[in-house]
Amino acid sequence: MNGGTTDIDVATNDRALGSLIEDPRLVVSINEAAALLGVSRSFAYELARRGELQVVQLGRRQVVPKHVLLQLVGLSIKNETFKIDAPK
Question: What pLDDT does 79 receive?
């Protein structure tokens, strides 16, 4: 394994991103965020604990706002269109 992204990974990520964009919910569970980001559930919870993955507390549940996931991958929502932000 060379550590690079394969065509299959890109296609899977594109489908996941498309489903995230089309989903009417404003937040997703940490488990769903982990799957969308391609990391393990335990790592997603670790990122949330360290403050690297912004979460919102709703009662006893921790959820991740959709815009946070999009920002993590360099996208932002603006008037229902998506713009790729230039790296800083």
Answer: 47
Number of domains in the chain: 1
Is residue 25 within 8 Å of residue 66, measured between CB atoms?
yes
Global pTM reads: 0.65
- Domain CATH number, residue 46: 1.10.10
C-alpha–C-alpha distance, residues 60 and 82, integer Å: 32
Assess whether pLDDT exceeds 90 at residue 8: no
Q: How far is CA 38 from CA 5, 10, 82, in A?
A: 12, 11, 21
- Is 59 a domain residue? yes
